[in-house]
Design a protein that fits this description.
Strand content of chain A: 25-35%
Structural class of chain A: alpha/beta
Helix content of chain B: over 70%
Order of helices and strands of chain A: EEEHEEHEHHHHEHEHEEHH
Number of helices of chain B: 16
Order of helices and strands of chain B: HHHHHHHHEEHHHHHHHH
Structural class of chain B: mainly alpha
Distance between the termini of chain B: 57 Å
Largest sheet of chain A: 6 strands, mixed
Number of strands of chain B: 2
Strand order of the largest sheet of chain A: 6-7-8-3-9-10
Number of helices of chain A: 10
Bound molecules: adenosine-5'-diphosphate, magnesium ion
Oligomer: heterodimer
Strand content of chain B: under 5%
Largest interface: A-B, 37 and 21 residues
Number of domains of chain B: 1
Chain lengths: 240, 352
């Protein structure tokens, strides 16, 4: 069986500087795969290229289709969705409008939009309470919930998450990652990019370590959690 | 000046301000969705007034030729783009949209031009000819440089105005025209103020359209998608909203507003092929008061410009444009101060 997402020898640059150099990774349907690495390793660049926001060279396939031939919006229509590091919410619009617009690619299926909205409100009751509030009045954690909720409204088959824990309090990080883990049960596969290595590896099935634009290491998440090199560099020494 | 005269000037100014209001909404709409200051907006308004004037004289309007030329150029550009891409994906649809659809109002205009048909037929056909102009100019001039800076887009917009005003001279000739009044009648208000049906029509249309405009953006999904594109382009693309499509929608709505402005202003002002520039510029002053983002402030700003202009022309008609454009200076100063204080709002997403 071929992988749901296949990336091979991918190169992405800003002008002359290559930020991602020959990265290969694959993700099977129903899996949570994580890419961890320090700040500036090229994680956001990698996701930007996968989503089509940045130009890239190399193999990029989703469910057998060559992603290079599809624009960002076509990828969304195929259930390939990104929750970006910067959230990119519609700040001046209400939480409800942000969510409705999340389903823009599915707008012709009113029944789907309604059930997706109910699903998001079930998952994030806070968003239901604040549905009439402007998105730029939300707290950091609520914004991340809204960003994930908005992506879920598109009925994604593969969700790319760029540092969902960024800038959030540890308790909220745990909440968010617990929700990420439950998404898999609804048939969403996940590519999770994180600096918070321990939390990410505890959530994922498989992990890649990205350093200065290259994959330094990869393996089952449980193996990486016990790998002395990962432990020393990313997990702050010994585990409990 | 007596209070009576002041009242008359105010009413007159509000009526002209109503036109600037519609134009200002169109300018803000296009700027917020595409970052283009659409200087040729006023040209579309002027051409629509000239189209209606031609119908009323039972002549063939030059707009037919203009729209046909634009449609041909846009179609050639689509063909060229398809050859360069080496792919005909979606080409048929785009040729239909840019090449064929605009010819429908051209054909209708051709049919009714030399005939004695009622106004109720002429006005929609004149508006129909206005509709394709915005999207065609977008396709021809702005789509190829969509990622350019706001300044480059502005320079192109100004150049485009001169280019199509030149075409206007070619197609309409140098004479100016007034259309016949859309409504007759003079009303005397309780205070002794006399107001023409034309003025009432201008103001009522502006109010009605502004309300429709507001409802469209607040309630409809397409309106929300337009706002989303304006607020956060990347975010919009990530939910599957295509900026080129929302751009076309914005240009269509703006063309309709331009056409309606032209129809409304035609009976009260003599319109020449190049009259559009001043209409657009005054609406632009209103839009700048709204910071090119706020619809309500733009609406108030446009009304203010209309009233200022009306009073200025009472004291010295030669100085009226000077007064209106001098307004820009304090407004820009105030705007730049406001921006210096609230300038961080654009980075709100950074901190998460
Ligand atoms: N817009 C940009 N222009 C130029 N260089 C960039 C840009 N964005 C990121 N970079 C560089 O690319 C590298 C990878 O950045 P990024 O993908 O954001 O890393 P990460 O998400 O892992 O923190 C860094 O060296 C960064 O400085
Ligand atoms: Mg990053």
């Amino acid at each position: 069986m071929s992988a749901m997402l296949e990336i091979a020898d991918l190169h992405v640059g800003y002008g002359k500087v290559e930020a991602v150099r020959g990265v290969s990774l694959s993700l099977d349907k129903g899996r949570i795969v994580t890419v961890i690495g320090p700040n500036g390793a090229g994680k956001t660049t990698l996701l930007g290229a996968a989503m089509g926001l940045l130009a890239s060279r190399g193999v990029l396939r989703f469910e057998g289709a060559d992603l290079h031939e599809l624009g960002v919006e076509d990828r969304v229509e195929r259930g390939f969705c990104l929750v970006p590091e910067r959230r990119e919410l519609f700040g001046e619009m209400t939480v409800g409008d942000n969510l409705i617009l999340g389903a823009y690619s599915r707008r012709k299926d009113a029944a789907f939009v309604k059930s997706a909205l109910d699903g998001v409100f079930d998952r994030f009751p806070r968003l239901a309470e604040r549905r009439r509030q402007r998105a730029d009045t939300l707290s950091g954690g609520e914004r991340q919930m809204l960003a994930i909720g908005r992506a879920l409204m598109a009925g994604p088959r593969l969700l790319l998450l760029d540092e969902p824990s960024l800038g959030l309090a540890p308790l909220i990080v745990r909440d968010i990652l617990r929700i990420v883990a439950t998404l898999r049960d609804t048939g969403v596969s996940i590519l999770l990019v994180e600096q918070n290595a321990r939390a990410a590896l505890e959530t994922a099935d498989y992990g890649y370590v990205l350093e200065t634009g290259e994959i330094a290491l990869h393996g089952a998440a449980s193996d990486l959690l016990n790998d002395p090199r990962v432990m020393a560099t990313y997990l702050g020494g010994a585990t409990e | 000046m007596t209070p009576d005269i002041a009242l008359i000037l105010t009413v007159d100014g509000l009526a002209n301000g109503a036109i600037y209001l519609l134009a200002g909404l169109g300018l803000v709409l296009i700027f917020s969705v595409t970052r283009v200051v659409f200087v040729p907006f006023g040209d579309i308004a002027a051409f629509t007034a000239l189209t209606l004037a031609a119908f009323q004289m039972q002549r063939v309007p030059g707009t037919i030729g203009l729209v046909a030329v634009l449609a041909a150029v846009a179609s050639l550009m689509e063909l060229g783009a398809a050859v360069r891409r080496r792919s005909a994906d979606g080409l048929a649809q785009r040729l239909f949209g840019y090449g064929l659809l605009p010819l429908i109002p051209c054909g209708l205009a051709w049919l009714i031009a030399a005939r004695d048909v009622p106004e109720i037929v002429r006005i929609p056909v004149a508006l129909g000819l206005a509709l394709p102009m915005g999207p065609l100019l977008d396709r021809i001039a702005f789509r190829p440089i969509a990622d350019a800076s706001v300044l480059v887009l502005l320079i192109v917009a100004i150049a485009l105005h001169f280019a199509i005003a030149g075409l206007g001279l070619l197609f309409f000739g140098p004479e100016g025209f007034r259309t016949t009044a859309l409504v007759d009648g003079i009303f005397e208000l309780p205070g002794g103020l006399v107001i023409t049906g034309q003025l009432i029509l201008m103001m009522a249309s502006a109010v009605l359209l502004a309300v429709l405009f507001f409802l469209f953006f607040e309630r409809s999904l397409i309106g929300k998608a337009l706002r989303a594109t304006a607020v956060n382009r990347t975010g919009a693309r990530l939910v599957g909203i295509r900026p080129e499509r929302t751009g076309v929608t914005a240009y269509l709505i703006a063309s309709a507003l331009a056409g309606i402005s032209g129809i409304l202003i035609g009976p009260s002002t003599t319109i020449y092929y190049d009259s559009g520039f001043l209409i657009g510029l005054k609406a632009f002053v209103g839009a700048i008061i709204g910071g090119l983002v706020s619809y309500p402030v733009t609406a108030l700003g446009a009304l203010f410009v209309g009233v200022m202009e009306s009073f200025a022309s009472f004291f010295s008609s030669a100085m009226k444009e000077v007064v209106v454009f001098s307004l820009l200076i304090p407004v820009l100063l105030w705007r730049s101060l406001a921006l210096a204080h609230g300038g961080d709002e654009e980075h709100e997403e950074l901190d998460g």
